Amino acid sequence: MYVVCFVVALLGQVLQILLKVSALSKKAKLAEQRYGLMEYLRDDKWTQLSGTVFSIMVLFFADEIMNWKDWLLEYVKFGFSFVGFAGAELATKLYSKANDKVNDLLGNSTPK
């Protein structure tokens, strides 16, 4: 069950990455620049790693979650997809360099 939950959390993280890259790519096109998945992973590799660490931390608490209420077992996988997505999104909001880089291409300043 733990491996499945971890894989589902990683899939949630992949979804977040794809959505973020799509948004950054659209912004970069406005500046007539290219910004894709490889650039994003290079710029924000530590951010994404911290999202994975967040998923692992929550996985350590999975016993308490699963033993708390039996009916929660039916929703654990779905919950871990949210954990992966939310962990990656939180790390991106706090530490992302990619968004600043694309905003610089557009001439926008971002608050530090």
Keywords, separated by commas or semicolons:
112 residues, mainly alpha, 6 helices, 79% helix, elongated
Question: Could you walk me through the main structural features you see in this protein, from its secondary elements to its overall organization?
Answer:
This protein has 112 residues and is mainly α. The chain has one domain (2-106). The chain has six helices and no strands. It has helices spanning 2-30, 37-43, 45-60, 62-68, 76-95, 98-106. Helix 1 (2-30) packs antiparallel against helix 3 (45-60), helix 1 (2-30) packs parallel to helix 5 and helix 3 (45-60) packs antiparallel against helix 5 (76-95). The longest helix has 29 residues, at 2-30. The mean pLDDT is 83.
Which structural class do the helices and strands define? mainly alpha
Low-confidence spans: none
Q: What is the tally of helical segments?
A: 6
H and E order: HHHHHH
What proportion strand? under 5%
- How big is the Rg? 16 Å
Number of domains: 1
User: How can the largest sheet be summarized?
Assistant: none
Q: Indicate the mean pLDDT.
A: 83
Distance separating the two termini: 41 Å
**Into which percent range does the helicity of residues fall?**
over 70%
Number of strands: 0
Shape: elongated
